[in-house]
Specification:
alpha/beta, Hypothetical Protein, Haloacid Dehalogenase-like Hydrolase, Chain: A, domain 2, six-stranded mixed sheet, Rossmann fold, eight-stranded mixed sheet, 276 residues
């Protein structure tokens, strides 16, 4: 029996216009009413999920809810948005990673739950401006010195730029970066760096342990390369039809696209056992 469903947002719960379709909300409500815990598991920071969580009405349905954010690097209770688990970068990490951005026309962006911090010697790229808008975060320019002073509790670091540049950046640097950090090309224009050993799968494992939910009682739905570790952990893994090839390969099952209520169909088929 499925007791927890972890749901990615962009490309999964959200359609291409960044909206939640009515059918998706209805299926989520049906799952909660059946006693299943719904957990948004996303690369977004806290500010990037608040309007959607309110729209879903989950606070009213589940007074003991949780969300997994920043690709597994932070977990919040939804009752008062208390932070219950978080991993951060050190000043040495920031200094080391900044050097990888030199020589590329890209942004080196630091993320906490509230802001996108742009090192102020770089003009924000169109990709950075667009992505910050998607997650309702302000872009704040800071110096590299301030970024390293420990005040801002950096959870995630992103390199952002034109997809062609980012593909080249990944090719030239990934083998080195993966020795010290967890990393993923989460979007064609974003290469994300997380503290070593952290991802959506580890975040989901931490939360499941806290809640006393077994691995075989967990379902995960996603579309991207940053969902693969979540798929590997969850007993029921469902990829969206619009998902990346590696994500679809990693999942046990496949559902319809984010434009055709794929999340709702997966919940009803695998968790609620409705016949199609």
């Amino acid at each position: 029996m499925i007791k927890l469903i972890a749901i990615d947002m962009d490309g999964t719960l959200l359609n291409e216009k960044k909206h939640i379709d009515k059918a998706q909300k209805e299926a989520i409500h049906e799952a909660v009413e059946a006693g299943i815990k719904i957990v948004l598991c996303t690369g977004r920071p806290l500010y990037g999920i608040l309007p959607f969580y309110e729209e879903l009405g989950l606070s009213e349905l589940d007074s003991e809810g949780y969300v997994i954010l920043n690709n597994g690097c932070s977990i919040h209770k939804t009752k008062d948005w208390e932070l219950i688990d978080q991993v951060n970068f050190t000043s040495d990490d920031i200094d080391y990673l900044y050097k990888f951005s030199e020589g590329y026309d890209i942004n080196f962006t630091l993320v906490n739950d509230y802001y996108y911090f742009n090192i102020d010697d770089r003009k924000p790229t169109d990709e950075l401006i667009t992505d910050a808008g998607f997650v309702f975060s302000d872009i704040t320019n800071i110096s590299l010195k301030e970024a390293k002073n420990g005040k801002h509790k950096i959870i995630k670091i992103m390199f952002l730029g034109n997809p062609n540049i980012m593909a080249n950046f990944q090719k030239e640097n990934e083998s080195i970066l993966k020795d010290k950090y967890s990393s993923v090309l989460s979007q064609p224009y974003i290469y994300e760096i997380l503290p070593k050993g952290n991802n959506k799968g580890t975040g989901l494992k931490k939360l499941a342990k806290k809640l006393g939910i077994k691995q075989e009682e967990i379902m995960a739905i996603g579309d991207g390369n940053n969902d693969i570790e979540m798929f590997e952990y969850a007993h029921y893994s469902v990829a969206m039809e619009n998902g990346t090839k590696p994500a679809r390969k990693a999942a046990k099952y496949q559902t319809d696209s984010n434009e055709n209520n794929g999340v709702a169909k997966a919940i009803r088929k695998y968790a609620l056992n409705y016949s199609e």
